[in-house]
Amino acid sequence: MKRVAVLMGGWSAERAVSLSTGAGVAAALRQSGYEVSEIDVVRDPTTLIAALTPPPDVAFNALHGRGGEDGHVQAILDLLGIPYTHSGLLASALAMDKPLAKQVFRAAGLLVPEGVVAGRDAIVAGTVLPVPYVVKPTNEGSSVGVIIVQEGENRSIAVHELNETMLVERFVPGRELTVAVMGDRPLGVIEIVPQGTWYDYEAKYAAGGSVHIIPAQIHAQAYEEAAAIAVAAHRALGCRGITRADLRYDDTGGEPGRLYLIEINTQPGMTPTSLVPDAGRHFGISYAELCSWLVENATCDA
Fold this sequence. Notes:
With about 300 residues, the protein is an alpha+beta fold. The protein folds into three domains: about 5-85, Rossmann fold (3-Layer(aba) Sandwich), CATH 3.40.50.20; about 95-110 and about 175-290, D-amino Acid Aminotransferase, Chain A, domain 1 (2-Layer Sandwich); about 115-170. It has helices at about 15-30, 45-50, 70-80, 90-95, 100-105, 120-125, 200-205, 220-235, 275-280, 285-295, and strands at about 5-10, 35-40, 60, 115-120, 135, 145-150, 165-170, 175-180, 185, 190-195, 210-215, 240-250, 260-265. The strands form three sheets. Strands 8, 9, 10, 11, 12 and 13 form a six-stranded antiparallel beta sheet that branches. The protein has a four-stranded antiparallel beta sheet with strand order 4-7-5-6. The protein has a three-stranded parallel beta sheet with strand order 2-1-3, sandwiched between helices. Strand 8 and strand 9 (about 185) form a beta hairpin. Helix 1 (about 15-30) crosses helix 10 (about 285-295). It is globular, with a radius of gyration of 19 Å. The two termini are about 25 Å apart.
């Protein structure tokens, strides 16, 4: 029986999401016959190494955000020689660093929104980009800290809302799409329809926060292109396991519209409201099968 340690929790802004993902994964793996332990990861490598001694056969990385998704935990697992799920150190670090990931995507010929890294003063002054634009942390996930400034809004950004430097991007109108990639296989294209004003943290994780339309009801050419972009982004960063690419589809001038790659998530959520389980079900792959596939394809850079 394969022994699997599920790494969950952590200290990032996405701790609650990670705990939900980890609990679901642990339950599914037990049902599939694995011997499972759960580790709530703290910001202390000595404690983590002790929890991984003796080493499990596989570490299921259910961490989200900084610390668990940016290469730090991956480095420890590589040093210990423990195979783990999802992407390795370099791909994880690249994907979490949004400006650097955009450079890689551009080099691979993928279209991304125009943007710059800017400091607090310039952002507060509103002189970085013309409205509408999006302000986001350079290294967070789950829409944590994202601000959208639209035309006609009486919106002023306060200094306390910003990190020292932020990524400012042109706002792309249109529809929200996402594509999960399993190995080298795209699992269809999903359109996300948030029930609020946009796909923020609440829309992602609250029950009823958004509607997932799969397959996305878009032009066939755009559908195929979206799937191809997700696979190309996965390969460009050197990802493995399961990733999820987020895109904006500007169809405001008619279809087929123009697709922009926003980012790639190297450890997408596996909560009850998450997108990857929905994508799997569309292809007849159960939640438990997704979790088992990740375990059986785990590896490390020892």
